[in-house]
Design brief:
The structure is a single chain. Strands 2, 3, 44, 45, 48, 49 and 51 form a seven-stranded mixed beta sheet that branches. A four-stranded antiparallel beta sheet has the order 1-53-46-50, with no helix packed on it. The chain is 1% helix and 42% strand. The radius of gyration is 29 Å and the shape is globular. Strand 48 (549-556) and strand 49 form a beta hairpin. Among the domains are: 4-43 and 511-618, Jelly Rolls (Sandwich); 93-192, Elongation Factor Tu (Ef-tu), domain 3 (Beta Barrel).
Length: 622
């Protein structure tokens, strides 16, 4: 029999069976499609050796008027601004005590645990506090040990907690017999805003806050400290407005330098009826209003301090400090009605899109006296999580609870060839961890999500909107920012910022478990046939054209049989053909690269698959 091409339809299709999708691709990892052909993903490398604290779930890049590039990072513990590869902690301050309110006591000799007494401290476990003005306890626990930032180890009660003593290098310091004082009478404790959870709490009552808080089954209002810590951020001019979901609204002033922290907007001099809490902040581009979604309403002469999850409050034009509605300004508020809570929002062309858990709204500037108009666009297409939507050149894309959608003037369902695969293997309890992303120069939008048995992001699904194909894989990235102020996309994981689409390595190591696998196809007309030769067609995407990719042949005789690996053939750039001996009714071809080092060891191999040819002939079963 003559050679025949084994060319498969672009995209992964998991909506049918392996055999039903004959002529297509069925499985992949770290492989994308470009112009109909599969190729290996671009690699990644750490942006710097610096590490941030906590899990980062929000990135925001911008450039100041002077040309300085900034990157905002919101984590479970802190808010940072990266400038010049350095992380600057601008986390707002919650409380500064009076001198002498804080005292210290050692737990025992040879123990690093220090009990800190501070009446009504209001802290939670893992909060950060900086001490100043403390004196030595008389031994190893000297003033240099005490006067620095600490993360609270345990909460003893409302009036005390513990820390683990350390020196300025971070090494543990053990108390000695001479440590018996209280740190002097002038210690000041400066508390940063409380940290948030690293897990999503899907409701109130059971499982929220600490054991014993409230009666059994009693409801607990979600706040910024008892739910997954999610930050939103946006620029108001050069300044940065930030909000931790369920918490306060803060501003970092660019002219004040990176040594200054963000400050609470509602207590800033000149503030007038600024919301004290909210679910998200966003600014309107055309008319320069600060918008707070899920704001607390005005009651009398002040804000209530309790989130109204369906309320939208907006400031006066060009003035982020004035939220009091008056006939002489454009401040005001609106309330949406479909759903139970505002979930998220993004900017689109001349409008702001706002999702509740069940509907999509469009918010547009219409000028005085109404300022903004909010129109219901669609019901039944709610947002699965606050970060599950993204704006791309072809429209705004988002993930709902069981489907994908696009909005480009109207709402359209995205036909998805991996829909059942994704939504049958997703942990929707942790849906607020889903983060949407774009890779604009590859025409891709995607979503990182937690698989069914995972509590942290471990998988992704991607849609190429120009070629209308889907694919997926495994990768942990808790936040993503497409190339904008920088030349490469940036993403975060395990305390590091990574540059993506950079070479073909995994941060200097080979990228492992890279593969694409076809669906079953017949050898011949469904009868037993013999595969004896493969003529590969690869393009290697590095300068020296070296490296190997494996072609794996798998076979089975009936759709219900398990696949059997018949052969694995290493393919180099100069490989003309691979001889195999596979006899079966059905065959699967898998193309993979695990240890893909190049000949000179620079680990930069990339590859693109062309039109593989196979040589088969009829054969009987033996």
């Amino acid at each position: 029999m003559a050679l025949q091409k084994a060319v498969f339809r672009p995209g992964i299709n998991r909506e049918g069976t392996d055999y039903d999708n004959e002529g297509g691709w069925f499985d992949c990892n770290l492989v994308r499609f470009r112009k109909g052909r599969p190729e290996k993903f671009g690699g990644w490398a750490k942006d710097s050796v610096n590490v941030f604290l906590g899990t980062c779930r929000a990135l925001h890049g911008w450039i100041a008027l002077a040309g300085t590039k900034y990157l905002g990072l919101g984590t479970t513990f802190k808010y940072y601004i990266e400038e010049g590869n350095s992380f600057n902690d601008i986390t707002p301050i919650r409380l500064i005590t009076s001198a002498g309110d804080v005292t210290f006591a050692k737990v025992g000799n040879g123990d690093a645990t220090i009990t800190v007494a501070d009446t009504s401290h209001g802290a939670v476990q893992n909060d950060f506090v900086t001490f100043s003005g403390a004196a030595s306890l008389g031994g190893n626990i000297n003033s240099a040990v005490l006067n620095q930032e600490y993360q609270i180890a345990t909460i003893v009660n409302a009036n005390s907690y513990t820390i683990e003593a350390k020196n300025t290098s971070g090494d543990t310091v053990l108390a000695a017999a001479g440590d018996s004082g209280n740190g002097g009478g002038s210690t000041v404790g400066t508390y940063q805003i409380s940290v948030g959870l690293d897990v999503f709490v899907p409701g109130t009552g059971w499982g929220v806050n600490n054991w014993g808080e409230g009666a059994f089954g009693s409801a607990t209002s979600l706040s910024s400290t008892n739910q997954l810590r999610l930050w939103t951020h946006d620029n108001f001019g050069e300044d940065l407005i930030i909000n931790q979901r369920g918490g306060g609204i803060f501003r970092w002033v660019e002219n004040n330098a990176l040594t200054n922290r963000a400050v609470n907007l509602s207590t800033t001099s000149g503030a007038n009826q600024v919301p004290t809490v909210g679910l998200q902040v966003i600014t309107s581009e055309k008319d320069r209003h600060l918008i707070v979604l899920g704001a607390d309403p005005i009651s009398g002469s002040s804000r209530t301090g309790v989130i109204d999850p369906m309320l939208i409050a907006f400031s006066d034009q060009e003035n982020a400090l004035d939220f009091e509605p008056r006939t002489t300004n454009t401040a005001g508020s609106l309330r949406v009605s479909s759903g139970s809570s505002i979930i998220g929002s993004v900017k689109a062309r001349q409008e702001i899109l706002i999702w509740t858990d069940t509907a999509l709204y469009s918010m547009q500037f219409v000028g005085p006296p109404l300022t903004f108009a909010v129109n219901l666009i669609n019901e039944g297409t709610g947002l699965v999580g606050p970060k599950a939507t993204v704006t791309a050149p072809q429209g705004v894309y988002w993930m709902s609870y069981n489907n994908f959608y696009v909005y480009n003037g109207s709402v359209q369902t995205l036909p998805c060839t991996v829909q059942n695969y994704v939504f049958s293997d997703i942990n929707l309890i942790q849906s607020f961890k889903i983060n949407a992303f774009t890779i604009a120069d590859k025409n891709e939008v995607g979503w990182f999500y937690c698989s069914k048995n995972a509590t942290e992001v471990d998988r992704y699904v991607i849609f190429n909107y120009l070629e209308n194909v889907w694919f997926y894989g495994s990768l942990t990235r808790t936040a993503w920012l497409d190339a904008s102020t920088e030349n490469y996309p940036r993403a975060v994981s395990d305390g590091y910022v990574y540059q993506h689409e950079l070479g073909f390595n995994d941060d200097g190591s080979p990228m492992t478990n890279v593969f694409i696998e076809s669906s079953d196809f017949d050898l011949g007309d469904g009868e037993f046939s013999f595969l004896q030769k493969i003529i590969p067609d690869f393009k290697f995407l590095q300068n020296d054209n070296s490296g190997n990719v494996n072609i794996v042949v798998k076979t089975r005789n009936f759709p219900g049989d398990s696949l059997t690996v018949d052969s694995t053939s290493p393919i180099a750039a100069n490989t003309q053909q691979a001889f195999v001996r596979s006899r079966a009714r059905q065959i699967v071809l898998r193309f993979e690269s695990d240890d893909d080092a190049t000949a000179d060891g620079n680990l930069s191999i990339g590859w693109r698959l062309g039109a593989t040819r196979i040589d088969i002939k009829p054969d009987g079963r033996r």
